[in-house]
Sequence to fold (193 residues):
Amino acid sequence: MSGRPREFEGEDVIEAAMDVFWSHGYEGSSTQALCERTGLGRGSLYNAFGNKQALYLQALRFYHERGIRIQSGILNGPGTPRERLRALLEWGIGEDLAGPHPRSCMALFAAMERGRKDPAVREITHEYGARFEGMLCHVFALGQRSGDFSAGRPALEQARAFMSSYYGLRVLGQSMADGELLHDVLEGTLARL
Fold:
């Protein structure tokens, strides 16, 4: 039989696998843990996805698409450009501090864990980063036209500087899960715009 069996066409299995990889990273996710979380046997898992690497890449893309949808909704939402950037930073802090067992951003974890040794992860990370950069650049261009941001530096440069602060904030959210510290970083980031 060629192709994926019909019962694997939904996103449920990918989302369940994403949950395992998100919690444990690629190296820390055993096939057994993937089988338990997805509800698939080892043979079914490999028949459906080929191997752990292929499943990981699908899960990583799923995570990125989820993130892009949420971030796009925030950056294209109501408010001034500055208010939208604040909302994005607050969302990031909320994500990193949520729940009794917070998890790091899977995208950042993947880039740090696998980006240098896995060209496919590097490509996915680059693709996502370019899309995110484009969304930020649009917000900065709007802010320059409205006078919310200085036009003294190109919008792309401002977007890249902000992106660096955003990712730094997300890393701090995992290494120093202190809401007060993270909100100080947020305020400092916005004050420099």
In short: Residues 55 and 103 are 20 Å apart (CA to CA). The domain at 60-191 is CATH 1.10.357.10 (Tetracycline Repressor; domain 2).
